[in-house]
Specification:
Elements: H1 3-6, E1 9-12, E2 18-23, H2 29-37, H3 41-48, H4 54-64, E3 71-78, E4 81-91, E5 96-103, H5 112-126, E6 131-137, H6 141-148, E7 154-159, E8 162-168, H7 173-195, E9 199-203, H8 212-222, E10 228-232, E11 237-239, E12 242-245, E13 257-260, H9 264-277, E14 281-284, H10 291-304, E15 307-309, E16 315-318, E17 325-328, E18 336-343, H11 346-359, E19 363-368, H12 377-386, E20 392-396, H13 403-413, E21 419-422, H14 437-441, H15 444-455, E22 458-460, H16 463-475, E23 484-488, H17 491-503, H18 513-522, E24 528-529, E25 533-534, H19 541-553, E26 559-563, H20 568-573, H21 577-582, E27 592-595, E28 603-607, E29 613-617, H22 620-638, H23 652-665, E30 670-671, H24 674-683, E31 692-694, H25 697-707, E32 714-719, E33 732-736, H26 739-753, E34 759-764, E35 770-779, E36 783-790, H27 795-798, E37 801-805, H28 810-818, H29 837-853, E38 857-868, E39 871-874, E40 877-881
Parallel strand pairs: 5-6, 9-10, 9-13, 10-12, 13-14, 14-15, 18-19, 18-20, 20-21, 21-22, 23-25, 23-26, 26-27, 27-29
Antiparallel strand pairs: 1-2, 2-3, 3-4, 4-5, 6-8, 7-8, 11-12, 16-17, 16-19, 24-25, 28-29, 30-40, 31-34, 32-33, 32-34, 35-36, 35-38, 36-37, 38-39, 38-40
């Protein structure tokens, strides 16, 4: 079962209204009757094909009969009243279910039916239903439009005045896109009261200077906010020039946004007061809520459909001319601009606001998410995508509520604007290797990097690095590649800059002879132009300008990095070399950035031609890292969108049956035995080396004969539940030639491991090839992660792995194959035959599919996987299952 069967959830309708989706049952008979009795005769006729009141009673009785095999009913309710109902009943032989949907009068065309059907389809898929069928009157255009707009494949058959529709429940990319669009529209509408409020009330603005609430009220007043401002204080009067009322109920009009800055113990009660009054959004800066208080706050928000920022946050701001709201307690108003900023830490938020102000970039909107009970980074990405003001997104996220939904949103938003983040929480402290190679490899850093890489997010290690990169992205075009030419008026500084570029993963190629000659014709005697280009201390402003312009227009390089040190020569002649970078007639077609070691600030934006700017850094390493990030973004944007391929010969149903059977006998989960592993891998067409099971030495001798092959050599591996690292425990024997060696090997294993050993696995000795490792680990937050890299006994020692979150696209698989340091071995390194790359691609796709199909798959280790020119084979595999329910990360629901 999915979450919707286990507990009610809240979700947004197309107009931003919050409704509660829950399972309907025996207690709902009167509510269902009310739903139908309050329908107009025309809507009742369209629902039941007649206006007979008895139909309503039968429908209510069907729901009231309660949960039963093959039947599911979901209710949408608002303010405790039923506003929509969707049902399915499975038809023989069990893969198709007949559905019905009803929406209360006054709630049509708001997305109730669509939302219910999305959740009903999710419940159906979990129960093994592959299609819905429905009958409707041909004149019922609204319900037919709902079916056809779902994003699922629909076929219709007209029969007189009726239409029979079949809706296939395959959750493909087209469906996810349709759900995504609906969710984005609803999300943005729901955030308008928060980010574009027409009236704001501050609750908790004290009369004495120094309180957080008073600071926020003062910032709202002095930021030239275009709406109405109110204050609530038990003694009324006036606070900071704003008339105060005793309660929210006393306000002359209901504000869109309430800012709550009061002690934690009172927050939930005030939130309920706001919801009752009709407030549509809350900003809670109060900290220290306990579990009960937090539940009360969220309960009020969900009951009354209020979006929530916080608690425990710095506040929010929107600098758009039509809003100009600063509801923070920061010391300075954020400057207007085009950068959207969302942070969990208030301190990080202040640092980013100050840094952007120093650079002159400014912000479009700023939200301090705090404890992130509701509004998240995903919400803010969708807001910036549609607000018409933001062209740069900056995030600081310490946690992810729904990483796969966030990744899908970020992947879309990053196509239209850079998305940057500080990669917080990289430490591996507190997470140690579980009992598998995959779990050992799948560090928090690797998992987060996989998310960021796949989504096209630029992840930096520090706030300073983020601001460095933001400055370059804001000021200059993206480089077409990684080739950098370094220009310097001091040879040593040029060498350091070239080293910094190389360390950052950029290349500093030698320049062609023609370009060298052209450069030397522009520069003073003694200059060198091999790259780095040493223009010497004698260079003049016009000479430097011409040199940089020539390089930035030439196809031999992708970016120009100019490092300049002050010299007495330039001072004596009055030459301003920095001006040479900023006084050209137009912006150059390739990025130009400066390194000025004498500069006090870490990074500045120097005004240049056509209202553009040139970023100047005090350290070449900072400049090189920023340039590497922009080159990586350009590379990501240049790659065509990729999809998850369809795979033949996959038996998902049989795999799920195998998993269910194992967990029925092992409710707490565990490691599968060799037979179960082989059966599960065969469901996904993952190749294994031939093998046989033996319980004693006689069976081992008999099993070895057909497996020995022409050379007559086999391998014996001990097995008992929980044995994972056979090499470390010396639980295997290699290169056994005859029956006597097989018997001796078996006796040795029995002597050393005794009754722990339940049997042995016999395999032929494998041919030579590249030993690789492929595996899956299910992260509790991020979902399934596919890990790939160098295998064999050195897999953990060398830690040569790459990882991507499942499901894997074709580009993800290509990245996995090319990212590890061992990847040259796969492509024919040093005259060795190349591995069968197609077979490796299939292996990774099939592992990804298995992990996506089976949430119970906690760990899978395929190590070693032997890769050669004629195919691949798995020599050893371990799989661990745990009881875990499926959860659709893309199903629309609030946190």
């Amino acid at each position: 079962m999915t979450g919707i069967q286990e507990a009610p959830v809240h979700a947004l309708l197309g107009d931003g209204t919050t409704v509660r989706i829950r399972q309907a049952g025996s207690a709902d008979r009167e509510e269902v009757l009310r739903l139908y009795r309050e329908m107009s005769p025309e809507n009742l006729r369209l629902r039941f094909f007649s206006a007979n009141p008895a139909s309503a009673g039968k429908a209510a009785d069907r729901v009231a009969a309660g949960e039963r095999p093959g039947y599911r009913a979901l209710a949408a309710e608002y303010a405790g009243h039923l506003v929509g109902l969707a049902e399915y009943e499975v038809l023989p032989p069990g893969s198709t279910a007949e559905i019905s949907v009803a929406v209360a009068d006054g709630w049509h065309r708001r997305g109730v039916a669509t939302l219910l059907l999305e959740h009903l389809a999710d419940a159906g898929r979990t129960a093994g239903v592959t299609a819905f069928s429905a009958d409707a009157l041909a004149e019922n255009h609204d319900v037919l439009k709902v079916f056809h707009d779902l994003g699922l494949r629909v076929t219709s058959h007209f029969d007189g005045p009726e239409v029979h529709c079949t809706v296939e429940l395959t959750e493909d990319n087209a469906y996810l896109n349709a759900v995504e669009i609906r969710g984005r529209v609803a999300d943005v509408v729901s955030l308008r009261p928060l980010l574009r409020p027409r009236a704001v009330v501050v609750i908790g603005a004290g009369r004495k200077p120094g309180s957080v609430g008073r600071a926020i009220l003062r910032n709202i007043r002095t930021s030239s906010y275009t709406g109405l401002v109110y204050a609530v204080h038990p003694e009324a009067g006036a606070i900071a020039g704003v008339h105060a009322y005793r309660s929210v109920a006393d306000l002359p009009q209901v504000p869109d946004l309430a800012v709550i800055a009061i002690p934690a113990a009172s927050v939930d009660g005030v939130a309920e007061e706001c919801g009752t009054a009709g407030v549509r959004a809350l900003l809670v800066v109060s900290a220290g809520l306990n579990t009960h208080q937090a539940a009360g706050l969220m309960g009020s928000c969900r009951r009354h459909g209020m979006r929530l920022v916080g608690p425990n946050c710095l506040g929010l701001a929107n600098t758009e001319d039509r809003v100009r709201l600063d509801a923070t307690f920061a010391a300075r108003h954020p400057g207007p601009g085009t950068a959207g900023v969302a942070v969990q830490s208030g301190g990080v938020g202040i640092a980013l606001l100050d840094g952007l102000a120093r650079l002159g970039i400014g912000v479009s909107s700023f939200v301090s998410l705090g404890d992130k009970y509701d509004v998240s980074g995903n919400d803010m990405l969708q807001w910036w995508e549609s607000d018409g003001h933001t062209d740069l997104a900056l995030l600081h996220l310490e946690s992810f509520g729904n990483p796969r939904a966030f990744s899908r949103t970020a992947r879309r938003v990053a196509r239209v604007m850079p998305v940057l983040t500080v990669d917080a929480g990289r430490s591996e402290a507190g997470r140690r290797a579980a009992a598998s190679h995959t779990a050992a490899a799948a560090t928090p850093t690797m998992t987060r990097q996989a998310l960021f890489t796949q989504a096209g997010i630029t992840a930096t290690r520090t706030i300073g690095e983020l601001l460095d990169t933001a400055a370059l992205l804001h000021a200059q075009p993206l480089p077409a590649g990684t080739k950098v030419v370094v220009v310097s008026n001091a040879g040593g500084a040029g060498v350091l800059a070239a080293d910094a570029c190389t360390d950052a993963g950029l290349s500093v190629p030698a320049l062609g002879a023609d370009l060298v000659d052209e450069l030397l014709g522009l520069l003073p005697d003694g200059a060198t132009a091999t790259n780095p280009v040493d223009v010497t201390a004698a260079v003049g402003e016009e000479q430097l300008r011409s040199c940089v312009g020539l390089l930035a227009r030439h196809g031999a390089v992708d970016a120009v990095l100019v490092t300049l040190v002050p010299t007495a020569v330039a001072a004596a002649t009055g030459e301003d070399l920095v001006r040479a970078l900023t006084s050209g007639p137009e912006q150059l077609p390739r990025p130009v950035l400066a390194v000025l070691p004498a500069q006090a600030a870490r990074v500045e934006l120097l005004p240049a031609a056509d209202e553009t700017t040139v970023p100047a850094y005090s350290d070449a390493e900072d400049a090189a890292r920023a340039l590497a990030h922009t080159a990586a973004r350009a590379d990501w944007l240049s790659r065509p969108p990729s999809s998850v391929p369809d795979l033949p010969n996959v038996e998902t149903g049989r795999a799920r049956d195998l998993v269910a059977a194992y967990l029925d006998g092992n409710p707490e989960g565990g490691w599968l035995d060799p037979q179960a592993i082989a059966a599960l891998l065969s469901c996904y067409g993952i190749p294994q080396i031939p093998w046989a099971w033996a319980r004693d030495e006689d069976e081992a001798v008999a099993a070895a004969e057909p497996l020995a092959g022409p050379e007559g050599r086999v391998v014996m591996k001990a097995y008992w539940p929980g044995l994972l690292h056979k090499s470390e425990q010396h639980a295997l024997h290699l290169d056994l030639h005859n029956a006597s060696q097989i018997r001796a090997a078996h006796r040795d294993l029995v002597t050393r491991f005794g009754d722990r050993m339940t049997g042995v696995v016999i395999q032929p000795l494998a041919e030579r090839g590249t030993e690789l490792f492929a595996g899956v680990v299910q992260d509790e937050v991020f979902g399934p992660l596919v890990v790939f890299g160098l295998g064999g006994t050195a897999t953990e020692l060398l830690a040569d792995h790459a990882a991507r979150l499942a499901p894997l696209t074709e580009l993800d698989v290509n990245d996995l194959l090319t990212s590890p340091r061992c990847s040259p071995l796969l492509f024919g390194y040093a005259g060795r035959p190349a591995a069968d790359l197609g077979a490796l691609e299939q292996l990774l796709h099939r592992l990804s599919r298995m992990a996506s199909d089976l949430p119970q798959l906690a760990d899978a280790d395929l190590n070693p996987v032997l890769a050669g020119p004629h195919g691949i084979t798995t020599l050893d595999a371990r799989i661990r299952l745990v009881p875990r329910h499926a959860h659709d990360p893309y199903l629309r629901r609030l946190r």
